[in-house]
Amino acid sequence: MPAPQKTNKRGWTTAAVLTVLAGALIIVWANPREEQHPESYAKLANYKGQARAAIEVDGEHTTVLANWNNREGVVAISLSSGMSDFNDRGARYSAISAGGLTDSTVRHRTELAPGQLLVKIPFQDRFEDVTARVEIGGDNWKPGGETESREIRFSPYGTAYDAKTGKSLPSKLTGEVIVP
What we know:
Layout: H1 9-30, H2 33-36, H3 38-46, E1 50-57, E2 60-69, E3 74-81, E4 93-98, E5 101-106, E6 117-122, E7 130-137, E8 148-154, E9 160-162
Antiparallel strand pairs: 1-2, 2-3, 3-6, 4-5, 4-7, 7-8, 8-9
């Protein structure tokens, strides 16, 4: 009586798995994604999705923040004025304009700093810069009077620039503590 033959199921399974893995390795090695779009990887490595500028306009300490919201496809640009110390009541007039939208407020002389102004503008490419115009009327501003303005270009890589000179702007005032 001949001895029953043993089938080596484990050997066939191992060979099949190794063949599939070798095929996947060849595909990945032949088509590396990094070689197809290296500029995209460099952009993503430096992408922050927000930029902040701390500037002084008409004697008023002003902070402007741009935050890219990829889920909604908008850049939210906010402006806050004043509160650099307890005596700073903020600007009498504040306005921010970007993408054809404007938000502004007027503070009465006896009031404290106004709330934060906000403009949301849509974007097509999250890697493109956006520009906003900030107008401030200081303590001596009167309704209908002249205001000082600055144009700021915000980069999603974390830096804000003066739109006219191209120089980078500080992200915080001297001695300012930023709480995330």
